[in-house]
């Protein structure tokens, strides 16, 4: 039987709906509007699209959006001064610095300058440490979105075997921590792992976050497993025209869907969840900053 196709677009719309409801409640009962500041340095075309989408969706759920576009030659001093101002601005509950930064800027230094309570990307070492030690953190948006999809698909994850392919700081590692926190038995594999197929084949849950089109093949996957494809890869699509391209994931979708129990498509799977979780994190940060109860269903 073919796998269930997980509709990340629809699920993300539900998450945004819950965020919007909570924002309305905060406005009505506490005269409080959550605010998200997004900082973009330089003119990277893809980053500009992301930032525009983030601002649009932030406004759509009723939150305030503050966009700060800085030229590519912005100095570290200027950028840190802006972050400092946003850290102390009571109207700003979440700060996101769009990555990658121009080469002359040190991303680690910049992320560390963000107040951990406003670090809605969950990249600050404080939040990384809190997540790793099982404490309340702001959690990176993409793996948080994957966890939401998995919970919606499987329910209780306790005791499940999970393999995360990829160990980046923004996806693979926090994904592994979230799955551990959900009581899964977790394996993390990466570019130097030698027996990936065998490890994946033993897993109830597979999360692929590699950036290699079609790496995960059908005979790697355990029948009935839930497969989450984080990869976004642009490849040629000669059937659509000489120079046409299309987006594909890390999983050989057509083949794996014959074996898996459920699978996310690319596009339309994990992708839409990332911004939805960013908005969820911003509402959570706003509630925490004001000593109010956290929104149900929007935290880990
Ligand atoms: P990254 O390049 O930082 O990390 C890739 C990881 O894959 C590394 O840990 C590396 O060791 C591992 N790897 C490389 N080749 C491998 C191989 N042959 N076998 C096993 N592991 C291998 O990438 P990232 O930032 O974690 O992103 C991964 C993918 O997810 C990319 O395609 C990226 O575009 C996508 N992504 C999507 C979203 C989203 O919103 N859906 C968000 C972030 C990243």
UniProtKB/TrEMBL annotation:
<protein>
    <recommendedName>
        <fullName>Bifunctional protein FolD</fullName>
        <ecNumber>1.5.1.5</ecNumber>
        <ecNumber>3.5.4.9</ecNumber>
    </recommendedName>
</protein>
<keyword id="KW-0521">NADP</keyword>
<dbReference type="InterPro" id="IPR020867">
    <property type="entry name" value="THF_DH/CycHdrlase_CS"/>
</dbReference>
<comment type="similarity">
    <text>Belongs to the tetrahydrofolate dehydrogenase/cyclohydrolase family.</text>
</comment>
<comment type="pathway">
    <text>One-carbon metabolism; tetrahydrofolate interconversion.</text>
</comment>
<dbReference type="Pfam" id="PF00763">
    <property type="entry name" value="THF_DHG_CYH"/>
</dbReference>
<dbReference type="GO" id="GO:0004488">
    <property type="term" value="F:methylenetetrahydrofolate dehydrogenase (NADP+) activity"/>
</dbReference>
<keyword id="KW-0486">Methionine biosynthesis</keyword>
<dbReference type="InterPro" id="IPR020630">
    <property type="entry name" value="THF_DH/CycHdrlase_cat_dom"/>
</dbReference>
<dbReference type="GO" id="GO:0005829">
    <property type="term" value="C:cytosol"/>
</dbReference>
<dbReference type="InterPro" id="IPR046346">
    <property type="entry name" value="Aminoacid_DH-like_N_sf"/>
</dbReference>
<dbReference type="GO" id="GO:0006164">
    <property type="term" value="P:purine nucleotide biosynthetic process"/>
</dbReference>
<dbReference type="Pfam" id="PF02882">
    <property type="entry name" value="THF_DHG_CYH_C"/>
</dbReference>
<comment type="subunit">
    <text>Homodimer.</text>
</comment>
<dbReference type="GO" id="GO:0035999">
    <property type="term" value="P:tetrahydrofolate interconversion"/>
</dbReference>
<keyword id="KW-0511">Multifunctional enzyme</keyword>
<keyword id="KW-0028">Amino-acid biosynthesis</keyword>
<keyword id="KW-0658">Purine biosynthesis</keyword>
<dbReference type="InterPro" id="IPR000672">
    <property type="entry name" value="THF_DH/CycHdrlase"/>
</dbReference>
<dbReference type="GO" id="GO:0000105">
    <property type="term" value="P:L-histidine biosynthetic process"/>
</dbReference>
<dbReference type="GO" id="GO:0009086">
    <property type="term" value="P:methionine biosynthetic process"/>
</dbReference>
<dbReference type="GO" id="GO:0004477">
    <property type="term" value="F:methenyltetrahydrofolate cyclohydrolase activity"/>
</dbReference>
<keyword id="KW-0378">Hydrolase</keyword>
<feature type="binding site">
    <location>
        <position position="232"/>
    </location>
    <ligand>
        <name>NADP(+)</name>
    </ligand>
</feature>
<dbReference type="InterPro" id="IPR036291">
    <property type="entry name" value="NAD(P)-bd_dom_sf"/>
</dbReference>
<feature type="domain" description="Tetrahydrofolate dehydrogenase/cyclohydrolase catalytic">
    <location>
        <begin position="6"/>
        <end position="121"/>
    </location>
</feature>
<dbReference type="InterPro" id="IPR020631">
    <property type="entry name" value="THF_DH/CycHdrlase_NAD-bd_dom"/>
</dbReference>
<feature type="domain" description="Tetrahydrofolate dehydrogenase/cyclohydrolase NAD(P)-binding">
    <location>
        <begin position="140"/>
        <end position="288"/>
    </location>
</feature>
<feature type="binding site">
    <location>
        <begin position="166"/>
        <end position="168"/>
    </location>
    <ligand>
        <name>NADP(+)</name>
    </ligand>
</feature>
<keyword id="KW-0368">Histidine biosynthesis</keyword>
<comment type="function">
    <text>Catalyzes the oxidation of 5,10-methylenetetrahydrofolate to 5,10-methenyltetrahydrofolate and then the hydrolysis of 5,10-methenyltetrahydrofolate to 10-formyltetrahydrofolate.</text>
</comment>
<keyword id="KW-0554">One-carbon metabolism</keyword>
<keyword id="KW-0560">Oxidoreductase</keyword>
């Amino acid at each position: 039987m073919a796998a269930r196709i997980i509709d990340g677009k629809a699920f993300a719309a539900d998450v945004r709906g819950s965020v919007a409801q909570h924002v309305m409640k905060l406005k009505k009962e506490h005269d409080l509007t959550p605010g998200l500041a997004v900082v973009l340095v330089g003119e990277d075309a893809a980053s500009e699209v992301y930032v525009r989408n983030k601002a649009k969706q932030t406004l759509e759920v009723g939150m305030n959006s503050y966009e700060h576009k800085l030229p590519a030659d912005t100095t570290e001093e200027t950028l840190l001064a802006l972050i400092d101002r946003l850290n102390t601005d009571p109207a700003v509950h979440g700060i996101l610095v769009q990555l990658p930064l121009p080469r002359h800027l040190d991303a680690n230094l910049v992320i560390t300058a963000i107040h951990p309570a406003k670090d809605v990307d969950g990249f600050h070492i404080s939040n990384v440490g809190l997540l790793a030690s099982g404490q309340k953190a702001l959690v990176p948006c993409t793996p948080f979105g994957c966890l939401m999809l998995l919970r919606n698909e499987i329910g209780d994850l306790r005791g499940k075997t999970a393999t995360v392919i990829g160990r980046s700081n923004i996806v693979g590692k926090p994904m592994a921590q979230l799955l551990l926190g959900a009581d899964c038995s977790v394996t993390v594999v990466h570019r130097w792992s030698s027996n990936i197929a065998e490890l994946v084949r033993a897993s109830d849950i597979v999360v692929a976050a590699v950036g290699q089109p079609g790496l995960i093949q059908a005979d790697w996957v355990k029948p009935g497993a839930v497969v989450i494809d984080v990869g976004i890869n642009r490849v040629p699509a000669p059937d659509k025209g000489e120079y046409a391209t299309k987006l594909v994931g890390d999983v050989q979708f057509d083949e794996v869907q014959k074996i898996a129990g459920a699978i996310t498509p690319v596009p339309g799977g994990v992708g839409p969840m990332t911004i939805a979780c960013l908005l969820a994190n911003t509402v959570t940060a706003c509630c925490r900053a004001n000593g109010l109860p956290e929104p149900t269903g929007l935290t880990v």
